[in-house]
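Notes continue from the previous slide.

Worked example: a multi-chain complex. Inputs as given:
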Amino acid sequence: MGVIRPSYSENKGLMINKNTPLTRRLSVALASIPLYQNAQADAPPAFTEVGIRYSNYSEDALPDSKVIFGSRNRYDIDVTQLWFETPIGGSWSVAMDIQNDSMSGASPWFVGTNVDGQPGVIMSGASIYDNRVEVGVTTRYFWADGNAGFNISNSREDDYEARSMSFDLAWNSDNNSRTWTASLSSSNDTVEPVKENIPVFIDREELETQSAYFGVSQVLSSTAIARIGLGYTVSDGYLSDPYKLNDSRPDTHDRFTLDGGYRRYFIEQRGALQLNYRYYSDDWGTDSHTGEIAWYQEIKQHSLKPYIRYYRQSRADFFQTTADLSLPFFADDYRLSEYGATTIGIQGFFQLGEWRFEAQLERYETNPSGGIGTNKSAPAVVDFWRGTIGATWRFD
Amino acid sequence: MGGPASLVFAPPNNCEHVGADIVSAAEAILVDLENRYSRYIDTSLISLINERAGSKTPTVLDPETHGLLDFCSHLYRESDGLFDPTAGVLNQAWDFKRNQIPSDRVIETILPRVGWDKVSIDEAGITLQAPHSELDLGGVVKEYAADKVAALLRKTGVTKAIIELAGDIVTLGVKFDGQPWRVGVTDPNAPTQTALSVALTDACIATSGSSQRFIEINGQRYSHFLNPKTGHPVEGCFSVSVIADSCLIAGGLATIACLMGATKGKTWLASSGLPWLIIEENQWTGPISDHYSSEQSTEAPQRNVPSPR
């Protein structure tokens, strides 16, 4: 005779499956009753999950007026992700992620001045083709009050290899209303630029990066939760871009982040308001603010989330629209300039039995004059489209 | 709560006086819930809320009641309005004991008093907007009480127990001999017989149905479950049992499946991912009966899920 246990049975026909949309919704509803708030222990996933996702990232071509020489076309990247996650015994899970990025296009090589005295971009010439493969493995241990994970990953492309490991920890307060999270990560990168279309001036360089994050989320009511977190990252090594002519950056980079979020579920509307904010500051002089507002709408077992994100940053101390090579450090990379950017997107999830399908489309547009500080923006800021489709299959 | 209650457990360290204290605490939980949520006790919270129906005076809610009502809201939405805690007033029109069918006019008089969408819950409390409407938490309180007693036992260190409140059963761990707890499902066609014995460990089984309370109209058997939208009985099942790790969820799903009727109820329960059993007149369907139909145990169950009334 089969023994029925929560989430487990020797007889699969009688398994208590808490991962269907209906039982998930009811379990969330239970959490609004104080009695059950202590009972929501951390547990490995009840199912094996296999997923695939494809994204296309396509940068707009630069206008003629911004290009002095070279192709107007910029990067186009196809991203394919495969992953699976499965429980092992009653307390462990293991997950593997594989990602392949296939990139083509041209990028700004340096910023010069055209015949009218206006800054313009000299592009990298012929189109660059590159392929990156990243493989990551995560093991996670669950206990009643939390979980801990360990991840190792390796990313390899023609001219770059990154090896990283991370450890993360989450634990819940006695009444499960508060969750603390902490993580540490370390990576070692090697860059060996490919000498083809443009001259490069290094053969091989190294970069070491360490990160730490600490955060807390607090249940405010049966329908609201807030979170806040602090992050710190330090890099030491080669931080310049070898494919840019005028790029000499400090060999250390300290970064600090403060992020917060608020979610409130509206019962009658079956939807949730999501607010996110992130502040970033580094020792290169860049500060940035990111604000996001999203509405998550349930539609039967499906969901739709439109969102808008606004971003603005100040330039790095050594950024100049046209690099000043007389300074100790200099760069004309648009990513170090001041600018503002707006992202508008919509994401949908569609549940059909054991399958969950997703689709997302977003538009990112940069406003060179929308940054923080004096008007030192780059001519080659980027606008792009990104589209994503994916499918996830869960089975026991 | 309209039925017998029983509690079997081994007290921590087999200490008798601790066991007696646990029993007293369990009784206190049941009495407290009865005193707060019974419609038949004049001083209960529910009676106070119902007394104020139609007025604009909200009744302040404690977090536990607020959570239970929030859970009812979820069941209301999941059932497309079939699970409605205000539908109890319809019983004033139907007398199942006398097989009496009320006139349409009587039902139409009562229907405006029914509707969870006429209940307002906000920071100030709960307000029943429709005059003479009534809140009835009978569909969730018994199941919640079983979960609450189980939580008390766990908190006091009890690891082996079986709790039964009028047919809703929660098991903790295994029996004292190391075997799973065994719960018998009564055959509604022969209420004295155990038709099927389910083995449970750390799980709950809740049963809803109308094997003893029903009405026949033109030879068609209707359950005592009333559709809150039409005011008429639904063509219900004899009984529905659901196994879950929360008795509140198991009971909510079983009740909604009864309200949906057998055909729709089967499809809906299949989407829940939980083991279930629907008994119709001569038909037992669902993962529980599929699993146990081929292997009947000779061991007597510790508890029987009685025929639902």
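Summary box: Residues 93 and 151 of chain B are 39 Å apart (CA to CA). Chain B has a mean pLDDT of 85.
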